[in-house]
Amino acid sequence: MSDSDGQERTEDATPRRLEQAREKGQVPRSRELASVAVLVSGAVGLMWFGDGLSKALGQIMIAMFSLTREDIFDLDRLFVIIFDAIVHILLPLALVLIFLFFAAFIGAAGVGGVRFSTQAAMPKFSKMNPISGIKRMFGMQSWVELIKSILKVGLVGSVACYLIYSSLEDFFQLSIEVFPANYFHALDILLNFVLLICCSLLIVVAIDVPFQIWNFNQQLKMTKQEIKDEYKDSEGKPEVKGRIRMLQREMAQRRMMADVPQADVVITNPEHFSVALRYDPKLDSAPVVIAKGGDHLALKIREVANKHNIDIVPAAPLARAIYYTTELEQQIPDGLFVAVAQVLAYVFQLKEYRKGKGKKPTLSKAATDIPEELRH
């Protein structure tokens, strides 16, 4: 549901929404942190490696201003001199650049981490829409950037004025120092100024980082309807899930009814429950429940049993106990062994009686003697 539907985005983003945003390359970023990290690291790098870099530059200048006429008109020798100059400057310059590279990488990944997204790299024609551009110009983000820019200018200007005022004695000292002492003294003052001014921008970073995280979370906030829709998409619509469960039950019932002809006996609570048991001494260490059901399903089990000449034995307490304590394809509990054994013995004797052997059997009372903990 869109904003036009009247719902406010009051709910925090769900984990799925956050993951989708990360896949699109949408993570909180602080440009202030990245730029200040480069500036501060650049100042520190110059303080650490500036001596070597300045010496290399000095050697290059001496070499370039000491060229003879023969050096200038001898291209081979001129190329050798240029190559030597590049070699001398390469190492100290590489140290500074590598230091800046790691600083830039850490500063950029400091908020939001490292994410690679092809979707973020794809061109978006919506960004070329002039109307959208005008909206962005007067949006909240633009006002925040304007305020940050004013704050940075004011902060840098204030710190610079303070440093100049506090260093007036050093400036006067430069006028009476001799070369090259005044030259190196001026460089020290300049580097300290650059470092302290860059460090002052950490105040802006301390404000910008929490704001960017808060703004990112605000942009990803969801309406209650969006959360409901997402839940439906991830978990499935209730009516679809209900339909699937119904089909699964029907398939399970069909498989169960197909197993009823393999039963040795069906025990019933004549009106409500039916339980079909199989016992094959070669396969089973105890009788196994292959079908069970209540009400209409119990009636269907009895119909299938009658159709396949499977004996149906009414034993209400035993039928209820097996129905509630044993799942399909599971063996009956130990406490029901005696009662079920009496039923199976009764069925075996009944089959013999039908063949004209022996007297008509009666079901032992032990078939309904159910332990108290198994009664239902």
Automatic annotation (TrEMBL):
Against SUPFAM superfamilies, the record matches this protein to: EscU C-terminal domain-like
Q: Which residues cross the membrane?
A: 33-54, 97-118, 146-165, 189-214
Top-rank taxon, per record: Bacteria
Q: What is its main location?
A: membrane
Give yes or no: UniProt keyword Transmembrane: yes
Under InterPro entries, the record lists:
FlhB (IPR006136), T3SS_substrate_exporter (IPR006135), T3SS_substrate_exporter_C (IPR029025)
Region annotated Disordered sits at 1-27
Q: Where in the cell is it found?
A: Cell membrane
Descriptive protein name? Flagellar biosynthetic protein FlhB
Q: Which UniProt keywords apply?
A: Bacterial flagellum biogenesis, Bacterial flagellum protein export, Cell membrane, Cell projection, Cilium, Flagellum, Membrane, Protein transport, Transmembrane, Transmembrane helix, Transport
Keyword flag Transport: yes
Name the membrane topology term: Multi-pass membrane protein
The protein's matches in PANTHER family, at most eight in alphabetical order, are given as:
FLAGELLAR BIOSYNTHETIC PROTEIN FLHB
**Family (UniProt):** Belongs to the type III secretion exporter family.
Q: What does this chain do?
A: Required for formation of the rod structure in the basal body of the flagellar apparatus. Together with FliI and FliH, may constitute the export apparatus of flagellin.
